[in-house]
Amino acid sequence: MASVWAKSLLNLQLLAVFFVLLICLPHGGGQKKKENLLSEKVDQMMEWSSRRSVVRMNGDKFRRFVKAPPRNYSVIVMFTALQPQRQCSVCRQANEEYQVLANSWRYSSAFSNKLFFTVVDYDEGADVFQQLNMNSAPTFMHFPAKGKPKRADTFDLQRIGFASEQLAKWIADRTDVQIRVFRPPNYSGTIALALLVSLVGGLLYLRRNNLEFIYNKTGWAMAALCVVFAMTSGQMWNHIRGPPYAHKNPQNGQVSYIHGSSQAQFVAESHIILLLNAAITMGMVLLNEAATSKGDVGKRRIICLVGLGLVVFFFSFLLSIFRSKYHGYPYSFLIK
Hints:
The chain has eleven helices and six strands. It is α/β, with parallel strands linked by helices. It folds into two domains: 31-175, Glutaredoxin, CATH 3.40.30.10; 216-325. β5 and β6 (255-256) form a beta hairpin. The radius of gyration is 32 Å and the shape is elongated. The N and C termini lie far apart (104 Å). It is found in: Endoplasmic reticulum membrane. Belongs to the OST3/OST6 family. It is a multi-pass membrane protein. This is Tumor suppressor candidate 3.
């Protein structure tokens, strides 16, 4: 009887060891498989990045290397539409800045396998756009190493613009990866300045015997007005922030030239504001001319009416744009 109990106890012990091995072995094998899969993904991303700073992805690559676990690296994705038939000029401009940023990271001493830059073109990954319910381009998103993207992981392109420096600052906030932007040398400004100096120098040389035009008040006033119009229309803001020229709604194809927020603007909007300010200024000049000149009364009356019309109409237009950007502004004049 004791031998039977001993054999039963031995069988139970063997059975317990078998179940323990059955539970532990697959888990260890699965962990090893997970590590191997992660290593393969990192190696593949590093290989692609060594060939090109921005990795192009279709739907399958996006789901495997960006969305699917395991993943211990962050991915910056630019969703865009670069094909000529899409006629997205903003996409091309944003892509140039994105390439500058990716190259700055790729060739920096801090480059590692913790951050990768990728791009998904609509014509190569339309299913990705549908999966993310994305209806505009370009769009920049950060996919963190752990967890799902949050609201702050989508770059606020309309408010900040797409300059490389602004993108680098956003990436530093989301990933703690600091990227120093290195731009390729651009000699166009130097060449333009040299041409301008040459032109002015040549003009002064040709008119060296008569330099009275330098003291022409009207000429200096026109030059000063050009500078004022450029600055008050937001050209310096455009230069710093690098906003898109305009925005085209991909759903209905409607193009917006005026930004709906008071915190941002389009390049086309600054051009419109410049022309409106110039028209109002022209109206004021005509009113002043009508009041101070000593010519024919009928002619002065016509000049006065034209100047008044310019001021009234274009100031109304300018005020309506102001109302559309500063929601809740109560005042309007002629045009709402």
